[in-house]
User: What shape does this take?
Amino acid sequence: MDIDQLLKLVRSGDLEPDEAKSHLAEWIKKQEAPAGEIGHLGFAQVDLDRERRTGFPEVIFGEGKSPEQLQAIFLKLQEHSGRVLATRVSQDKADAVLQMLPEARYNATARTLTWLKHPQVPVRAGYVAVVCAGTSDLPVAEEAAVTAEMLGSRVERIFDVGVAGIHRLFGRLELIRGADAVVVAAGMEGALASVIGGLVSKPVVAVPTSVGYGASFDGLAALLAMLNSCAPGVTVVNIDNGFGAGYAAGLIHKNMEKKAK
Assistant: This one.
């Protein structure tokens, strides 16, 4: 959160002055940190400068890391930032971190582990819509939702509105159209992204999921369908990459304010 956003939130009454002072102190500390600062852990070099460069701290990819490695990286980031996000975290790895940092939060559906020093304050008005075709797509959709929320976006979740019962989608269409950006997670043939792309005027970030029978080829069929969508404004991320989709949508939402200036 930059200085302009802080001042606007205080002026609107959405942020108390004392809390704004705390955010401001953290912001000043980040500006004073040496460029390119790295946390050396032996097995990992943690990029402590990333938030200053990109607006968000380094995100931990939990797969392939031991519980002890995840714990060490998570705690190192927690020492230097007001928010930490780890994705693809199993319950046993989450437990290792929660033992040391009980105020962290584990989302078993999304497989995300998060920590916030202060309650999250929305970066601006508006929201991101996260839409998924079926219940089997929930882990990927929820990963996108948690990621966008960690970037400071309010998220509206619209789940189980796939094309096999497309009337369910029409009942939520106005909510989807009201979003600043839309994430669509779908497996099988991946048709939902094209349908929504043809019904909304906002950027659509499509996520093919690995849900489906044999000829879906673990999400490849949905990926190709989304890449070949004839609906304009649809951008596609990798198979099951809810994090990438949520991050992109969160950045779009955050930067809508700059567009309005």
The first strand starts at residue 38 and ends at 40.
